[in-house]
Each structure stands twice: as structure tokens, then as C-alpha cells.
Amino acid sequence: MRLKTFPGGVHPHDHKHFSASAPIEVMPLPKRVVIPMSQHIGAPSTPVVKVGDEVKTGQKIADAKGFVSIPQHATISGKVSKIDVFPHPAGASSVSIEITGDGLDSWVELSDDPNFMDLSAEEMKNRIGEAGICGMGGAGFPTFVKLSPPADKPIDTVILNGVECEPYLTADDRLMLERTQEVVSGLKILMKILGAKQGIIGIEANKPDDIAAMKKILASESQFRVVPLKLQYPQGAEKQLIYAATRRKVPAGGLPMAVGVVVQNVATAFAMYEAVRYQKPLVERIISVTGSVVQTPKNLQARIGTPFSELVQFCGGTKEDPGKIISGGPMMGFALPSLEAPMAKGSSGLVLLSEAEAVSLEERNCLRCARCVDVCPMNLLPSMIAQAVKAGAMDIALKAGLEDCMKCGSCAYVCPAHIRLVQWIDTGKIRHAETLRGKK
Predict the structure, then answer these.
(1) pLDDT tens, 34-60?
(2) CATH code of the domain occupying 116-278
(3) Is 109 exposed, middle or buried (0-12, 13-18, 19+ CB in 10 A)?
(4) Most buried pick, 6, 79, 103, 242, via CB within 10 A?
(5) Which residues contact 4 (CB under 8 A, 6 or more apart)?
(6) Is the pLDDT of residue 1 over 80?
(7) What's the whole-number average pLDDT of the chain?
(8) In the chain, where are the structural domains located?
(9) What is the pLDDT of residue 435?
(10) Which of 106, 87, 103 has the alpha carbon at shortest distance from 95?
(11) Separation between Cα atoms, residue 346 and residue 326, nearest integer Å
């Protein structure tokens, strides 16, 4: 059967061999954690604790600030030792709460509700909101908000994103293989909340074991489909995944709800299951620590806020000094100056490259070859947008589709002139956002 895909995109080497066969290991409790107040799209969370407070694992330490925001929770038990600006896994810095652990891992009280599917949609949604769950595939959109579409935008289809098309990363792969039932339960919760009649799980064809496991568990349920997808980056992007799985086209500037679809990452679905069944806050996730420099690449179940340095140390350290440290994957991740930053709710991977792999090539003049146009999954003109931003012609950049670019990096990957197209486009987005703020 011909595998489903979308127009455009690229096919970089996936480098998943480093950690694909590594089963999930539970990371020992970190000595300290740093919980950023900005782990999501929207307003940063507001601390509700102060320095010196004793906290338990799962205790709320920051509240949502407004509708598009989420609460934060202590991920270890101990004492709040600092509330200050710390390095952030997105490469900048953020107000964060530091907790020094007591080594006891004393939890707030959780409760198992085996009849969780009998809860009303509103009760389920409230538990998800209280658990502080946001999209765990990278974007970090508050899940509670995503589950509240307007009444005039009915949802008939929920798609679980099990694509994991970023090179190196294998956290979602192992999660689907080892926690299959829990991920499917998360999908059923999503469908009940949204009133959707169809559930789709999209998985790239380089994960045959995951596809087989999902098909086996859903074999007798006709409202579900497992869709094997062609290896094509960025297959996991929302609009591309929706088109590949359903042939529905999300309009430019529109959201998936415009075509009756909601997309969630498989890790988010797993977190939703734990929140609805056990009322467990999002305090840990699966993360791939991988790359040629890592002594023993692993997939770890680690607490949110664990310093990246401790994750690497648990993997046996490095074979040599890394040439580049990437939070996330190499296509859409963030280069970091050191391993000081903590892992966040959206941290699906930490990739360490060698000096040879991280070589920086000199940017040359555009050759007008149009390769960037051929591979752009959004049908944009990346070179024109970048040149307009360089020249300060923001009106031209906007007309060429600056706001529609999702910064997937396909254009930069194929550019023979090594133009840093994504960085220039991102610069344009920042300038445009500053202009809009100045007009308010």
C-alpha cells in the first residue's frame, strides 16, 4: 500500500539508531530542579510559593495567569531555594523556581479512578487543566485551551501525532511501544471531551513495531485508524499530518479546528491519561538523550526541571567535548551554550553533536535555484522572505508569507548557498511582533 504523505518536505538521515532500541529507563531523582514559568505558549505562570517553603512532589507552585496559560507543579519534594532568572531550554532565560530536593520524593495524595471514562467531558477537561499539561511535541500550547473549541467549530476527528520525524529523537517511539494502552486511553479521553467520532494515530513507517502494537490493540474498534506515513520531514507538523491522514487542507492562517480536527502528541495523550485517571500533575516525561558524543544514548523517564547536565551524566557522560548541544532535534531545536538549562515539559530530546558534525558553513549569495521553494511544505518563497527581512522590507516579507512559516528548517537543509533562512525568517517574526506590540 502506498504510504500517505504531503507535498514538499525533505528526507534527512534520521540518526535514530543511537537510541531507538534503548528501553525507557527511570532517571534517579535529581538533587535539584529548576521549573521555568514559561514552558508553554501564552502568559508565564505566576509563583504561589516563596523561598524557604517546603513542597511535596505534585504540589502546585505556580498558577496559570489568564486563560492561555498553565499551572506548574513541584517535580521533587524539598525546599524552594530560589526564585530567579535561570537558563531556559529554548536558549534564552526565564523566571524559574529552584527546588533543592530532600531525597524523599514525598507526593501529594493521588487517587486511582478506574472508572475514569465515566467522568463527564467537563470533569476530564478540568483535571487536565489542573495537571498543567501543554503540548509535549514542541509547541507547548496549553492543552485545556486546545480542548475548548468554539461551539461553531465542531470536531469530528482527533489525530494522535506519533510521527516523531525529527532526526535522532526516539522518546515517542519508545512511549508508543512500551505504554501502548495508556496512549490509546489518552486518545479515547480526547475523543470523549471533543465529541469526536473518529480517532487516527499517524506513525512514520520507520516504526513498524509501534504500528503493529497500535493496530493490535485497536483491531476490534472501527472508529480508530492507524495510518502508516512516508518518511518525510516535517511529517509531524499539524497541517501536514492532517493533510496526509485525512486529505483535509487547513486554510492559510487557520487552525486545525477549521477542518474539524484536533491534533495532539502521543506524549500529551499519555499525560492526559495519567491526569484524568490518577489526577497526577505533569511532573515527568520521556526524553531522548542521544547523539554520537553521548557515551550511552538512552530514553529516560525524568522529572521536569532536571538539569541537562545530570541527564548526560546518567548516560555515562560524553566521549569528547560536544561541538554543539541541541535542546530538541537538529531541525527545529535550540542550540545551547552549555548543559546548565533544565528539561521542560516540551523537551523531547537532548542531542549532542561532535565538532565535525557541528561545522558551520559560510553563508553565500542566493543562487536562485528554487530548491527552498520546492521543499517548503507551506508553499512559501523562503529566499524571498529572508532577503526582504535582511533589507528591512517587512511589508514584502509579510506578503511573501512570513507569518505562515513554521520554521521547520527544510529550506535551510537543502540550500546550496548555506543561507540561514530559518534564522532570517525568525528575525522577521520577532521584528514584526515588536512592531505589533509598539502599536498597542
Answers:
(1) 999 999 988 999 999 999 999 999 999
(2) 3.40.50.11540
(3) exposed
(4) 242
(5) 227, 228, 229, 230, 244, 245
(6) no
(7) 95
(8) 116-278, 371-439
(9) 86
(10) 87
(11) 13
